[in-house]
Structures are given as C-alpha cells and as structure tokens.
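Hi R.,

Here's the chain you asked about this morning:
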Amino acid sequence: MHAWPASEVPALPGQGRDLRIHDTATGGPITLDPGPVARLYVCGITPYDATHIGHAATYNAFDLVQRVWLDTKRQVHYVQNVTDVDDPLLERAERDGVDWAALAEQETQLFREDMTALRMLPPRRYVGAVEAIPGIVPLVERLCDLGAAYELEGDTYFSVEADPHFGQVSHLESAAMRLLSAERGGDPDRPGKKNPLDPMLWSAAREGEPSWDGGSLGRGRPGWHIECVAIALDHLGMGFDVQGGGSDLVFPHHEMGASHAQVLTGEFPMAKAYVHAGMVALHGEKMSKSKGNLVFVSRLRQDGVDPASIRLALLSHHYRADWEWTDQVLQDAVTRLGHWRAAVSRPDGPSVEVLVDEIREALANDLDAPAALTAVDRWAVTQERQGGTDAGAPGIVSRAVDALLGVAL
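And the predicted structure, written out as tokens:
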C-alpha cells in the first residue's frame, strides 16, 4: 500500500533540541534520545468513513514529532497501518450495499488527499492489515506454541496473564479495563474465556465475511491488536522510540499490543514512550464515527477553507488536551493565517534569531504548539507596528513556520 507525497521540509539555520514528551506508561515527561534514525509507529484509520478533525488532530501531533526529530538532523522511520478489514468497515459496507474492499480503498484514498492537503509528512511504510496477514499468522501460531494463546469455538484468544507486564501502559484497574474493553471492540462477557479481558488474535471464518488462510489456525481474519504488532515488529523491531495514537487507544489497543509483542519477543518494553493525543468534541460530545457528530476535513476543503487554516486551528490546542471544535476556533485560525501572511509579505522585518529559538524550545517541551504560535504572533505584531531592517527575516519566519509547524505561508 502506498502513502501520500511528502511536502518539502525547509532547512533551517542551527539545530533543534531533543524532544521531551509525556509518556503515558510512566505518567510523566521523558526526554527521548533516538539514534541517528528515530522510530515511530502511529495507529492508522479504519477506512469506513472520511477523515474528521479528531483524526487530523492526532496525526498533526505526530507530524510535529517528526518535524522536531528532523530539525535535530535525524532521519525518521515512520510506520502507519490501515485497518482495512474490521467489523465497522464490514458493517458499513453491508449497510450501504457496497463491496467492503472498494469502500476501504475509497476512504483510504480520501485520507491520503486530506493528509497531503494538511502537509502531514507521510510514513515511510504504510501497511494495510490485509497485506500484513502473511506475517500475522506465524505470530499467532507462535503465541499458541508459547502457551500464551488458546482456542475457543474456533477463535484464538491471547491470554493476558501470559505477560507479567500487562497493565503497565494504562495502569487501569481491572473493572475499568473491562468496561473499556466492552466499549472498544472487546468481548469481555463471552462465556468460556480464561479472562474476560483476553483479546481476539484470530477470528474464525464467519458466513458472509472475508477470510484468509490461517495455516494451523484455520480460515479467518486477524484481531485488531495483533495487526499493529506484526507491522511494527516487521518494520521497526522491538524497543522503538514512540508508539502513538489518540488517547482512546491507550486501552485496550496499546495495552494489548504491548503484551503481544513482549510475550512474542521476551523483551520489555515494546516502545520507549507511549504518546497519546487528546479527543476533539463537537457540541459537547467527543467527535466519533459511531455518534456521527463529525467535521470532515474533506468537507471543509470543499467549502473553500484553506488547509493551512485547518492546521493552525489544530495547532492552537495542546496535543494532549481535550477540546471542542467550533466555528470560532476556525475563524481565529483564518485570522491568524492572514496576519502571518501579511507579516512575511514585506521585504524586511524584525530580527528572528530569538523567534526560531522560541519555536524550537516550545516544540521540544512536549510539543507545546500553542506557545510556538504565540511566539510567531509576537513577531507578526512587531512587524505590523514597527517593522524592522532585517531583509532575511520574513523568509526565515516563513521557512521556520513551514519546517517546524507544517504551515505554508
């Protein structure tokens, strides 16, 4: 599966700082010190509907992670999956009377177009669940051989008790885990399971659903968590730098994925940091496909909204915060974009030596994009009120905003 084209990242004078970021597993900030190649895995979409602002906010956060690393002169090996076969996708295809594979490709292509418009840097490896199945089956079989998995009426489940580190990503009580499991694709009430929290590794073929050869597992399709584990281990290996996604993935997805990988490899942890973006609400409720309270990126673009304004609206909130999308949030971003573009359109301006340093410092401090925007605002106000004599300043500001914040002026 192919990703989307990369926008050019301008080179800046000097060098950025190492990223200090909040790690869900430890509950506090850690300073990441990757080698020459930083390794990032971000969980991708289930393509049964268009990209909404909540998706965009999550991918914007990890785009900033990439940009901070690139500014330190590192390379970035970024991997993202597409869950192109799963219950929500199959249910939507049946409801609409369309082929599930065609629906998945249609919505994945729209996602690519939205990411391109928002100047999100693409992953080096963009991998669908279906194409990963040949690598998933041997992992499930190995978990069976290790005694970490068991069969129940043809389905194969992972035993969470096989991992002594289970729970060390989310740190939730078992009752809370059980509630979230039921809400987020699990089946804690299924009779016969060894532990209500045990997640599906391989679902036996059901009538009317797609299925694949699972070797000793029989025909079927993979569970959600093992999909990401297979892709991450194949392309990044164990102990990669950041596992990312929205905060709704902390449990069960990232908790279960970590346990799968740790039992498979005998190593701990799966990732050096677990980083999660907050949720975006609309009219007081979390924006989600199941509720239908969505603001689509593609619809905003069709309505003539500049993608740079959408990106600035996302950047105006700290990535870990839960916030609400409103018309005012977008209008503030449109106003800010116009102000910045006017400021860099002049032939000269105030010195930018301090400004570039402020942007770098803000982003290195747990991706504090709002502080970075405030720094650019100050420079733009000074430009408007007093101007300056530095002929290179507007160009450097334009390149810095592009390189570090992904906003084209």
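The first helix runs from residue 53 to 71.

Let me know if you need anything else.
M.
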